[in-house]
User: Which sequence fits this backbone?
């Protein structure tokens, strides 16, 4: 009896540990899949990518936390190409706060993960531009597990991101990307077009102060980011990305496949019932002056 | 004895799990705290901010010698998460007035400063406030029944 109980508990523990490490890799999300079986037979237009989409794993699909179980994690991809000397220098200078704690037994137990995922430091000791409300840039914002709304207009698609309340324009009017833009932009310069059932977005000129993902991977302003969106079900939008940036990476970096869940139009509501994306602004006065100075920094043992 | 050994093992299980549970946080602050060594205190609310990136509670804790320590705590759920449990701005602020006596459990900062991530929060009636009842810090807050003064929004 006791042996059985202990065996059961051992299995429970082993199962939990496996689950928790999986959840950690997934960004802490509960086991919700991108596709809802209830929607399996609903018709959809493969060329309609409008609406609110989210990689968030909570039932409501917003409000922080982790990603849905098959939606990919907070990283661009684990198969990071070797970096150039400049890329390595920039990578070493970036101090992220996501991932496994630097120097922890947890980090040491996962040598199979790219080093970027095993070097987190408290934000007070880090250099994450997001901590001071700088825009995240396109690849990182797409990876962030909060909703985005695709507003499809005749000449462009506006992607509005809930966290940060940022807007990015993807032009579909046939214009060509600038070859060497005079001024880099936080969101870069983007154009998009349909290739069969895949919506392809090309981006360049992204300000190199942004990171590729939460783990502090760098890029140059010459980075060429390709996004390939496919609507694979009524409620699933699949995204594959690739980065070509010879100044930083010695070969093309292909992303892990990311999936978004489709949220109902009235799926996100304020306490008063006002539907639509939350105004999850990162306001410098609140974020930097209050939160960082009084919570984040002392939590990391830093006094400024 | 038969009952004791599995219980001891269960405690061990929980202990091990507690040390490996990642502490996800919306804003990446999870690594600042040590969730495996939670601390429970009695305190008095001095300030409360319902804001992004995480709501913050400031409170005073008086030790046995009468020394007052000013603590700061962040809630893991941000406002967008809190409203899903019915904890809007007005209700939250009404629940945590200055002077409210609280019992609070935090994951303390690894730096040893009087700052923590709030894991559990009880008011002077022993009621859970803000839905923070000691569960997974990355989970949405638990809904609480509305009081007569604070009407729960309609849930669809």
Assistant:
């Amino acid at each position: 009896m006791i042996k059985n109980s202990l065996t059961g508990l051992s299995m429970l523990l082993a199962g939990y540990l496996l689950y928790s490490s999986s959840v950690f890799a997934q960004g802490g999300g509960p086991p919700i899949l991108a596709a809802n079986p209830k929607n399996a037979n609903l018709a959809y237009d493969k060329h309609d990518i409008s609406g609110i989409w989210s990689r968030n794993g909570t039932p409501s699909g917003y409000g922080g936390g982790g990603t849905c179980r098959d939606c990919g994690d907070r990283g661009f991809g684990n198969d990071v190409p070797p970096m150039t000397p400049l890329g390595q220098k920039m990578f070493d200078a970036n101090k992220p706060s996501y991932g496994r704690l630097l120097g922890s037994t947890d980090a040491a137990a996962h040598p199979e993960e790219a080093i970027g995922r095993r070097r987190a430091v408290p934000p007070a000791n880090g250099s994450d531009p997001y901590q001071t409300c700088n825009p995240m840039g396109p690849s990182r914002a797409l990876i962030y597990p909060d909703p985005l709304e695709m507003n499809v207009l005749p000449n462009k698609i506006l992607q509005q991101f809930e966290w940060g309340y940022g807007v990015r324009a993807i032009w579909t009017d046939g214009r060509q990307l600038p070859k060497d833009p005079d001024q880099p932009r936080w969101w870069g310069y983007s154009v998009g077009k349909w290739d069969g059932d895949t919506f392809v977005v090309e981006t360049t000129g992204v300000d190199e102060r942004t990171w590729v993902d939460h783990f502090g991977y760098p890029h140059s302003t010459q980075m060429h980011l390709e996004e390939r969106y496919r609507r694979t079900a009524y409620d699933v939008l699949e995204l594959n990305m690739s980065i070509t940036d010879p100044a930083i990476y010695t070969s093309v970096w292909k992303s892990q496949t990311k999936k978004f869940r489709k949220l109902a139009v009235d799926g996100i509501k304020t306490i008063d019932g006002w539907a639509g994306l939350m105004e999850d602004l990162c306001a410098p006065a609140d974020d930097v002056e209050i939160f960082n100075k009084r919570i984040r920094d002392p939590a990391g043992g830093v006094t400024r | 004895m038969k009952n004791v050994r599995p219980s001891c093992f269960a405690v061990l299980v929980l202990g091990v799990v507690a040390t490996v549970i990642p502490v996800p946080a919306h804003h990446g602050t999870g690594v600042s705290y040590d969730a495996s060594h939670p601390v429970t205190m009695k305190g008095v609310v001095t300030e409360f901010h319902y804001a992004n990136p995480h709501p913050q509670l400031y409170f005073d804790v008086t030790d046995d010698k009468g020394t007052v320590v000013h603590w700061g705590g962040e809630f893991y759920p941000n406002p967008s998460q809190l409203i899903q449990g019915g904890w809007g701005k007005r209700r939250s602020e009404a629940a945590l007035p200055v002077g409210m006596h609280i019992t609070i459990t935090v994951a303390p900062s690894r730096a040893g400063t009087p700052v923590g991530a709030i894991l559990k929060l009880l008011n002077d009636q022993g009621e859970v406030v803000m839905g923070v009842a000691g569960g997974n810090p990355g989970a949405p807050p638990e809904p609480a029944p509305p009081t007569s003064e604070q009407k729960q929004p309609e849930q669809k």
In short: Chain A touches chain B through 62 residues (CB under 8 Å). Confidence is low (pLDDT under 50) at residues 1-29 of chain A. Chain A has one domain: 47-299.
